[in-house]
Amino acid sequence: MRNIIITFLLLLNFPNIFVFGQNNQDSIKNEISYLKNIYNNLEYDTRGFDDVKEKWIVSDKNLVRTLFNQFIVNKLYPSKDIFLFNRNISDGNIYLKITKRYFDDELEKIEFKTYKHTSVVLPKKIDGFFLRVLVGNDVYKKIKDKSYHTIITKKEFQKPSIYNYDILLSTLEPEVMFWQATTSNINDQIQNKYLLSFFGKWGNDNLMIPGWFASDYIGGLKLTYKKDILKRNSIYSLAIGTNFKSGDPFPNIMPSKPIFFSGRSIYFDFWGNLKKDLNLNIEGKFRIQEYTRQKYHYISQRHRVFYTVKNYMVLNLEINKLTSIPLPGGATFGTLNATVGFSFFDLEHLQFIPTEINIIHLDNVDENIFKRIQKNFNIDFSIKSPEGFFKYQINPLFINYNLGNKYGYLGIKLKALLNDTFGIDVRFFRKFSGNIPAWRNNYYIVFSPILRINY
Hints:
- By secondary structure, the chain is an alpha+beta fold.
- It has six helices and 21 strands.
- Helix content is about 15%, strand content about 45%.
- It is elongated.
C-alpha cells in the first residue's frame, strides 16, 4: 500500500519534477521534500500506543555495520566521523533499538544507541519514508523476523516473560540453558533478565589439573542474573553442584602418583561485576563424604600410592578491555584482557592396600592442615572477539606458579566458534621452572569439540 501511494504521488508530480529538474536541481529536492511531507501526513499517529509497541535491541556487530554502511553509501554520515564510529562498533558500544508499528507487522523505526557516553556522532533514526529503501529488503526482513542469534533480548512487551534456549555442548565446560525470563519494561525502565542452566566442568586450570587429568566431573545448576539488559557489565552468576567420578581416558600418560577421586564434595562458583570492566570470581569445592576402602578397588596395582584433592578455593580478578588491538581499515582484532588470581587446595597423600581395613594416610593426619595446602598464583592474558561470524578467545600467555614448591607452568589456550555453532576448545600447558612433584606431568594438553544450538 505504501509503494502504491508513493508511486501515485510521483506520477502526479512528475511533470513538475521533470521541468524544474532540468533547470534547477534544488527544485527536485524541494519536490521530494514536499512528497515526504505529504506521505508523513498520511501516517496514522500512534504515539498513544508507544508503551505497548513491540521493541527490542540488536547488538550483532555485523548487522550494526551493515546498516551504518548504508548511511556511508548514501552520503548521510560525515566522513570525518566514520573511523570513530567504526571503533565504537568494534568495542561493542553501539546497538540498534528497533520499534515495530502497532497496527501491522512492519517496522516503525530503527535507532542507533550507545551503551555508554561517547562523543561519537550517531546517525539519525531511520523511519517512515526511507526505512525499507535505506536498509534493503533482505536486511529489513532479517530484522523484522528476528532471524539472527546474537541479540540481547527478544522481549515482547505484551508478555510477562519469554522462553528461549541455549545449548553449549563440550566435554570440558558444557552448559544447557532451559529457562529464562525478562522483566517488563514500561516507560523505558530498567529490564532484568534471569537464566537457569545445567552446567558441567571437567578440570581446573587454576589448580593446574586440566580436564582429562582430573579424576572427577562437576555438574549442577547455574543461575545467571543480568541487572540491566542494556548494560554489558551488569551480569552475575552463581553455580552450585557436586562431583562425580570421571574415569581416566588416557591412563598411559598419568604421572607416577596420580590424583584420584576419593569422595563426594559440594561445589560453588560465583562470578560478578564489581565495577565497569572489573569482575570477581570465587570458586570452591569442599569434601562432605569420604570414600570407604571398598570403593577404591578401581585403582590399579601400579597406582596404589596416590594423591587426592580434598578441598580447594580459587579467587580471580578479571580486568577487561585493557586496550583494543587494531587492524588495518579501522577494525579490531579483539580486546586485551587480564586475569590475576590465587588458588589454595588441600592435597592428601594416600595408599590403598587391599588387605588393610582402612586407607593409609602417608601424611601425618594430625599435622596442621595449612602445612599441606598448595598455594598457586596465576596470571592469564586473553584476546577476545565475541561478535561476528568467527568468534574467538585466544589466551597467548597463561602463567601458573606454585608458591610453596617453587615450580611453574606456561600455557596457551584457544576457544573458537564458527557461525556461533561449531567450534573447538584447546589448552596446552608445559613446565617452565623448578622440579615438579610425582603427581604432576611435564606437560598437559586437552581439547574438546564444541557444538552450540540456540533458539
